[in-house]
Amino acid sequence: MADNLTEKQQKQQKQQGRGRGRPFEKGQSGNPAGRPRGSRNRATQAMQLMLDGEAQALTRKAVELALEGDTTALRLCLDRIGPARRERVVPLKLPPVRDAADLAGTMTAIMAAAGKGAISPDEAGRLARLVEVFLRAVETRDFERRLQLLENRRPPASY
Q: Are 90 and 121 a contacting pair, CB within 8 Å?
């Protein structure tokens, strides 16, 4: 009985250290080895075994259903035929940009194109971010140049 009591006390002390609702020590899982990388669920493996020889027949049936007007099958087939739309080339003429003074014209062209619908607002935002990055690069280059001029002009400190 005394051994039992000490075990209970030990468990309570361990539990107090972990906090309520924490069955494991902080930073340590119940299974340190964990699930092996690349291992697959048994149900997934069973499903793949059943479907292995039927891929062609299932594809043919999905196409038939799509051709008959089944919208779900149609969507499934179209998703597999063409890649998801990513980005497109933006057909936009921008004025040449050499320094910060040229950026106002560039932003005006971007805003006008978005207003006319030639480019989407999302594309306009991405182009505006490019302009912003260019502006920061120009400002950094100018700051570095001015700092070098100041350091070169300053007479050496005398001690």
A: no
Tell me how far apart the alpha carbons of residues 105 and 92 are, in angstroms, rounded to a whole number: 13
Expressed in percent and rounded to 5, the helix, strand and coil fractions of the chain are 65, 0, 35
The rounded distance, in Å, linking the Cα atoms of 28 and 24 is 7
Tokens of 35: 């699930």
- For the entire predicted model, the pTM comes to 0.43
77 within 8 A of 91, measured Cβ to Cβ: no
Q: Six-digit token pair at 18?
A: 């972990």
Rounded Cα distance, 107 and 124, in Å: 9
> Which pLDDT tens digit goes with each residue over 2-45?
555 677 777 666 656 555 666 666 666 667 777 777 777 888 88
Q: Which two tokens stand for residue 70?
A: 């089944």
pLDDT tens, residue by residue, 78-99 = 887 877 667 777 778 888 888 8
- For residues 114 and 120, is the Cβ–Cβ distance under 8 A? yes
Residue whose structure tokens are 């902080």: 26
Query: Going by C-beta distance under 8 Å and a sequence separation of 6 or more, which residues neighbour residue 145?
Result: none
CA distance 75 to 78: 5
